[in-house]
Amino acid sequence: QQQVKQSPQSLIVQKGGISIINCAYENTAFDYFPWYQQFPGKGPALLIAIRPDVSEKKEGRFTISFNKSAKQFSLHIMDSQPGDSATYFCAASPSPIQGAQKLVFGQGTRLTINP
Amino acid sequence: NAGVMQNPRHLVRRRGQEARLRCSPMKGHSHVYWYRQLPEEGLKFMVYLQKENIIDESGMPKERFSAEFPKEGPSILRIQQVVRGDSAAYFCASSPPGGAAGNEQFFGPGTRLTVL
Predict the structure, then answer these.
(1) Contacts of B4 (CB under 8 A, 6+ apart)
(2) What residues does A32 pair with on adjacent strands?
(3) Would you call B97 helix, strand, or coil by DSSP?
(4) pLDDT < 70 stretches in chain A
(5) A97 touching B (Cβ < 8 Å)
(6) CA distance B23 to B7
(7) Does residue B55 sit at the A interface (CB-CB below 8 Å)?
(8) Is the pLDDT assigned to residue B1 strictly greater than 70?
(9) CB A108 to CB B58 under 8 A?
C-alpha cells in the first residue's frame, strides 16, 4: 500500500515532442505528489508538485495531471529538449498533519531526448 | 542561500570499517531526511529527524545503521561494520518546519559509498 508504481522504465522522445510519464498509488493518505529530475551523479531536484485539490498544474513546459478517483498522476514535458534528458522520479507523501513526511518514490524513468 | 550540503561526496571503505556521512540542511530548515539509492533504482526512505529527535526510522536497517541530528552541527548517518551491500548513494534532504510547505524536500548532492 506504500508503493508508487511508475512507468515506463525508459522513454525515448524526439526533440520537440511530448514526453509523458505515469505514476499510480494506492495509499489514500497520500496528499502531496512531487516530481524530481535527476542527472547522473547529482541529487534529485524538485521539478513540480501537486496536491489532490487540483487536477492539473503547469509550470513552463512541465505539467502534472492528477486523477484522484483513479489514483494516478502523470508528468507531461512539452516541446522536449535534449537538456531534458535525465531520470525522472514521481513521489508521494502523506499530509504533514499525519506526522511523518517521508517521500515514497517511484522506480524512475530514464528519459532520452533525441536531437 | 546555500543548498543542502553533504560530505564527503565519495567515500571508500573496506568491509568491517565504519562510514560516517554528514548532512547540513538548508538555512532555516529543521527537518532532515536520509534516503538510499541503489544503482538503477529509486530512492528508499531511511530516517526522518528533527533537532535532537528521531521522528521516523521505519526505513533504517535494524542493525549497524544509526542517525542523529544534534542541537549543533550537521546530521550524521553512521554505518558500522560496512558490507558490500551497503554500497549505494546516500542522499540527505531537508524541509522547512511545519505547515503545507513542510512536504517540500530539497536534496543534497549525495554521498557515494563504495565498500571494497
Answers:
(1) A43, B23, B24, B25, B26, B92, B93, B94, B106, B107, B108, B109
(2) A93
(3) coil
(4) 1-2, 96-100
(5) no
(6) 7
(7) yes
(8) no
(9) no
